[in-house]
Prior knowledge:
Layout: E1 5-8, H1 12-23, E2 28-31, E3 47-48, H2 58-82, E4 93-97, H3 100-117, E5 125-128, H4 129-135, E6 145-149, E7 153-154, H5 157-170, E8 174-176, E9 183-187, E10 190-195, E11 198-202, E12 204-207, H6 213-216, E13 227-236, E14 250-252, E15 258-260, H7 275-288, E16 297-307, E17 314-317, E18 324-328, H8 336-349, H9 362-365
Parallel strand pairs: 1-2, 1-12, 2-8, 12-18
Antiparallel strand pairs: 3-7, 4-6, 5-6, 9-10, 10-11, 13-15, 13-16, 14-15, 17-18
Helix pairs in contact: 1-5, 1-8, 2-5, 2-8
Amino acid sequence: MLVDAIVVGGGLVGSAIAWGLQREGLATVLLDEGDLAFRASRGNFGLVWVQSKGLGAPHYQRWTRASAEAWEGLASELAAGTGMDCGLRQPGGVHLCLSEQEFADRAARMARMKAEAGNYAYDYRMLDAKEVRDMLPGLGERVVGASWTPYDGHANPLNLLHALHRAFKAAGGRYVPEAGVTGASAAPRDFRVSTPAGDFAAPRIVLAAGLGNAKLAPLFGLAAPVRPQRGQVLVTERTREVLPIPTTSIRQTDDGTLLLGDSQEEVGFDLHQTQDVMAMIAQRAAWSFPWIARLNIVRAWSALRVMAPDGLPIYDESEEFPGAFTANCHSGVTLAAAHARLFAPMVARGALEPGMELFSARRFAA
Ligand SMILES: Cc1cc2nc3c(=O)[nH]c(=O)nc-3n(C[C@H](O)[C@H](O)[C@H](O)COP(=O)(O)OP(=O)(O)OC[C@H]3O[C@@H](n4cnc5c(N)ncnc54)[C@H](O)[C@@H]3O)c2cc1C
């Protein structure tokens, strides 16, 4: 089947890009491996988060801010086109500090983020214990302060994924499940891939297969040295208490449950959950808000982040085979708007914009 563009990977990154391409008028096919694959998109925490992104990498800070700013438009467009509510709330967010050392480290980090932002306004405040208590009633004695920015928020990531798929199909895109790419041939602006669901050809291809990109990218003259990083998440029963704004590791969903998370573990492709990590997550949540200790945990899971060696996204275009692109990141909820509304139009035009080379995997070779 010949189309204008192939996107490999039907997670949050691939779906946002595929919808963006279809929206640009390109007949696009979205190929996805299936339910057995590792899928960060179905196991994440749902933050649309800005405040800690891009230390030492102002281009990533700007990219994240641009996405957070475009998120409201994304959510409205998805709601209008699919009837689905992505649950976006952007009331700002806090990072709670549970010791003087954590507070000092956080203050230093936020000051550096602001300095690196240059002319780009970066509004933040370090809140002392009283100020955070005024903002978040029910806070525990161990909380010594917090950082706050107005840019942060959260969303329902499963609704987002579902809405992106629906919008893509409604715009005329073709989604093919059980279509893991098993073979490929590449020539400039001429790509062919084989899958159990058939063969596909196009002058453009975007590799957005999450951890699967590590194997696929070299077939197209690209590199995607991503590794798995495990995160565990706990869900409480619904609670009467209201958490008005999300924190880095505690947020309240629309239906009243609390999500507690999320660990950062270097354990390869091991998807087990472990008691010690779950206990640590629950303990920190109860230190932050003692009333959480009386809630039952009703669900828990682990999932694998898609992590580059320096933690930043990888966006690239192949020098050897023009028309082939990669996209990998560990903040696919936050960056969904950037992928659909900024990245996809660049691919549609045939080249990434100046400035995007800072995200190239060539930075690792250097
Ligand atoms: C615990 C945890 C918490 C997180 N919290 C947040 C958060 O709060 N905010 C945020 O912004 N981000 C968060 N993330 C990160 C976010 O979930 C990921 O950045 C995002 O889901 C990555 O999406 P993806 O599409 O690249 O990868 P995936 O979701 O892994 O999807 C990759 C897809 O590619 C397909 N695939 C793989 N190989 C092939 C192949 N050969 N052919 C065809 N298809 C293939 C798979 O079937 C899969 O569907 C979190 C992640 C985790 C694990």
